[in-house]
Sequence to fold (183 residues):
Amino acid sequence: MNATRQESFNPPKIDLKQYIRSIPDYPKKGILFYDISTLLRNADAWQIAAARMANGVAKWNPDLVAGIESRGFVSASPLASSLGCGMIMIRKPGKLPGETISLNYDLEYGQNCLHIQEDAVQPGQRVVVIDDLLATGGTLQASIELLRKVGAEVVGAAALIELKELKGREKIDVPLHSVITYE
Fold:
């Protein structure tokens, strides 16, 4: 095991919600959008958020973290670096070179499709799935199923923000770590 993975991070106790901007009626009327760009551009807050995510995920000892397009890449990349593991991408159709494996899934308002490179995971590798936001859970659970389809052992999932009232956690069949929660 990489020594970096064993380190414990001790981020300061601050309320990261103060760095998240809420935008009503975006991207459509009735949606309250939680904008992480205000957190990302504050160096101290972003470092603390990244350390809290690393603390929550380190216990699963992943070989890889899988970022979900596209905002999941923002958290997955520094997380992989902190944990000393690799990073892979789960993307929309037509965005990955080479042979890919796909999974179609239903959303509350339609359908979507995710792709992963067929050789992204070696059978049995321990993978944690990362996204910026957990709402209803459809995309995160579909990503877990897609990773299993290519032979991954999905040991956990993490989100920068979790909207608890939408009960997405109930759809996820692996342990979940969220850094910031809204009721």
